[in-house]
Every structure is written in C-alpha cells, then in structure tokens.
C-alpha cells in the first residue's frame, strides 16, 4: 500500500510555483531511499502525470518517489540553464523535508526519459552537493550530446528542440551546445572526490526521434573513465514507450518492454540506491580511507 500527495509545491520561478506528485509506502521501518522522476517532452511539453504508474510501483517497492514538473521552453523563453535550477530546488525541498518525511537524502536516484534523461544525467554530472547524494541515474532514450544530435538527426523537425532549449541557433554555436551536454561534464565530475553516481542507460534501437547512437557514445564515455554504467538495448522498440502519453498506446508498467525491463530496473535501484553507502561517501573515498588506515 502507498499514499499519494498531488501538486505539492517544491519551488518557484519568476512566473509560477513548481509542483510535484509524491508517492510513498504506508509502512516502513527506516528512512526511505528516494527516487526523483523527470519527464520528457522535447523540453517543451510533458508533465509529472506521465510517471503516475511508475510512482505507484516504486512506492510499493519501498521508495519515496517525487515526480516533478519543471519549467518548459517556449518560442519566447529558453529554459536552459534555469531548468537545472528547478532540479536544485527539488533537491533542496527533499533536504528541508527529510526529517518530517523520514527520508534518506544520501540515497537518491534520478530517473528520466528523453529530455528527462538529459536533465537527470546533466544534473548528476554537473551539480555536486554535500547536503545530499545522487547515487544513480536511469536514462531512457536520452539526449546526452546536443551537438551530436544537431549534426546527426534521425528526423528533421520544423522546430529544433535543442535550439529552443538554449535559445540559440546551432550554426555558429556548436561549442555552446556541447557545453550544455551531459557528455561534456564527465571529466569534471570525476575530479570531484564525492562523485559516485552509477548509470543505467536504456534505449530502443529503432528510435526515430532521438538518435540512439547518442546512448552508445555516452555509455562508452562513462565506461572510459570507470564510471559504473550498465545498458539495455531494446531491439524492437523506438521512442515513447517508457511512460504514458495521451493518444499513444502503451507506456504502462505492465506493457512491453517495461514489464521485461522491470527486474533489471529494480535490481539496479536496489544495488545502487537502497544499498548505497551510509553517509556522504564515495567508493573512491572509502578506498583512500582504508589505505590510510592500513598504513597506520
């Protein structure tokens, strides 16, 4: 059994309040590990309701779940980098409410699809806090290199979603698009002693919306610097199947391929979030401390 709190205000912009839906188990014996769910929608659409079934499922598995809305890009408003501030506000809300809600803020996982996978990965790689700990990211058919996507599109759109996100034309600004990409922040993340985020990348090989090669290149870049990363390629699926969208069939947790992926997802979360180290330590720090102890 679980409870749901709808439209909880977790932050605000200059124009509006930011809201989230919260899912949590009714009974638990220790502070809850946390999952933050970040919807996709080409940076211009989507909502927290897309993750309703996942929120319920993860709450039943013993997680506190926060499915968030965030500011969206419009023809007159480029949401980057302000949208990253929305994620910071979500994290600060978790820290502020950790005691009241009985949450373990050192056991946080981020889950996002498409644009949400981009936001989850970029946030984990470029924002480092001593107040909480992002242990893992699950990215589903995500964007990880905006410059690569602009140069190698699967589909030519009337509106380039990456240009709308940044408020810049790609021509003449390739370096800005790359700098705003998760893949550009891997080396910086590895320079932070407390960085210890594991990744699980999932994508459809028949994706005709986002170039699936991005996921493979991101995987290889993470692996090259020894960041823990796992992958699953869904050979017979494309885009728009991980969560529910109006007018599009499928997307439920019991629909294929979500039902086939479920054991892997739950196992990954159990290992990387539920069983994460207590306290704000990275595995590298533990190794250093153990060596120091051995030298005494």
TrEMBL record:
TM stretches of this protein? none
Q: Which UniProt keywords apply?
A: Hydrolase
The record's SUPFAM superfamilies line, in alphabetical order, gives:
alpha/beta-Hydrolases
UniProt key word Hydrolase:
yes
Q: Is the keyword Hydrolase in the record? A: yes
**Molecular function in Gene Ontology:** hydrolase activity
- Among the Pfam families in the record, one is BD-FAE
**Start and end residues of each BD-FAE-like domain:** 21-222
Q: In its UniProt entry, what is this protein called? A: Acetyl esterase/lipase
Q: Which organism is it from?
A: Sporosarcina newyorkensis
């Amino acid at each position: 059994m679980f409870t749901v709190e709808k439209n909880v205000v977790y932050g605000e912009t200059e124009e509006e309040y930011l809201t989230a839906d919260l899912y949590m188990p009714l009974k638990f014996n220790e502070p809850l590990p946390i999952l933050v769910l970040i919807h996709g929608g080409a940076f211009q659409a989507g909502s927290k309701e897309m993750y309703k079934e996942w929120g319920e499922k993860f709450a039943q598995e013993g997680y506190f779940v926060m499915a968030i809305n965030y500011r969206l890009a419009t023809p007159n408003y480029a949401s980057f980098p302000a949208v990253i501030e929305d994620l910071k506000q979500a994290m600060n809300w978790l820290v502020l409410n950790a005691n009241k809600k009985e949450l373990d803020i050192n056991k946080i996982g981020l889950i996002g699809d498409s644009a949400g996978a981009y936001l989850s990965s970029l946030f984990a790689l470029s924002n480092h806090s001593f107040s909480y700990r992002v242990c893992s990211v699950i990215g589903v058919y995500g964007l990880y290199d905006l410059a690569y996507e602009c140069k190698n599109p699967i589909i030519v759109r009337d509106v380039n979603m990456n240009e709308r996100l940044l408020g810049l034309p790609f021509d003449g600004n390739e370096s800005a698009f790359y700098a705003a990409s998760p893949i550009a922040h891997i080396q910086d993340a590895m320079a932070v002693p407390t960085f210890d985020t594991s990744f699980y990348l999932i994508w459809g090989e028949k994706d005709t919306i986002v170039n699936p090669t991005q996921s493979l290149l991101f995987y290889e870049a993470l692996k090259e610097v020894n960041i823990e990363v796992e992958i699953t390629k869904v050979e017979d699926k494309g885009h728009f199947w991980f969560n529910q969208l109006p007018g599009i069939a499928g997307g439920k947790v019991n629909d294929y391929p979500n039902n086939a992926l479920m054991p892997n997802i739950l196992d990954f979360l159990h290992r990387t979030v539920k069983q994460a180290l207590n306290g704000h330590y990275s595995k590298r720090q533990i190794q250093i401390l153990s060596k120091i102890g051995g030298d005494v």
